[in-house]
What we know:
- By secondary structure, this protein is an alpha/beta fold.
- Helices cover 51% and strands 9% of the residues.
- The strands form two sheets. A five-stranded parallel beta sheet has the order 2-3-4-1-5. Strands 6-7 form a two-stranded antiparallel sheet.
- Strand 6 (314-315) and strand 7 form a beta hairpin.
- The radius of gyration is 25 Å and the shape is globular.
- It starts with a helix and ends with a helix.
- The model is unreliable at 1-35 (pLDDT under 50).
Amino acid sequence: MLLRAGRLGGAGGLLLLLAVRAAAAFEPISVGLTIGAASLLTGYLSYTDFFCRFSECCRAEQPLNASALKLDLEEKLFGQHLATEVILKALTGFRNNKNPKKPLSLSLHGWAGTGKNFVSQIVTEHLHSKGLKSNFVHLFVSTLHFPHETKIKLYQDQLQKWIRGNVTACASSVFIFDEMDKLHPGLIDAIKPFLDYYEQVDGVSYRKAIFIFLSNAGGDLITKVALDFWRAGRKREDIQLKDLEPVLSVGAFNNKHSGLWHSGLIDKNLIDYYIPFLPLEYRHVKMCVRAEMKARGMTVDEDIVTRVAEEMTFFPKDEKIYSDKGCKTVQSRLDFH
């Protein structure tokens, strides 16, 4: 369709000439209207934008609005200074690179309710206008799409064909793998050739694609580091990526309950960033409640905010610093109130 649009633009003069000749047998008014209609048609069909108004288009070269992404992450993601910083820099650098040597791969780790899925939603909305509903964003859920351990070979073949077909259709496709901690070990290695430093694989370039892995694995390691900082009287904002990234990569590689267990993706250093999502504190839960109330068009009532936050359970048992469900049950508890 896009190729045809380009050819019409080049043959605009011929189309206009034929339209005039066809209308020459009629009165001058008809000739004028025909010329106007033909000119309008050739003018619009010369640009792919015309088609993109009615059908979603893949725009691999479209620049990322880094300022808008930064604002969204800072205003909507609470308590995750590391994730905000790393994701912003990683995506901006990747999309500004006209000739990346490999696809971008991000592995997001942390307990449920800390914002991993939410970040994926924000990121995809800035990469493709329809976000998770885009034809160029593909979500795989381990327990839904790959439930049977006995069918790993079949899943691997299907996964390769699916990714190859979609990247062929759109070079800047985004692939999200949720519940990596529940994925059968070895399955994810099927995509290793697509993440490697190859210019092409079977005639297809994957270098502008983005792969995002979401996992609860490593949540205990992240919490330990955060707790050590807290007990030492240090701010959570003092935690740096270097304090956690090596621990996460080794932990994911050696965790038998992780889809990345002994994976070639880790062994060959094909994952670009291991991004930790810190456990959320009481103040962060309150931020989540306020944000949810605003999203519903409600006036923020601090009494309700406090009541919802206080109904959450916190750990460790003695200090009770971190919410054990993050912000995951905020919506349902707000419904109750």
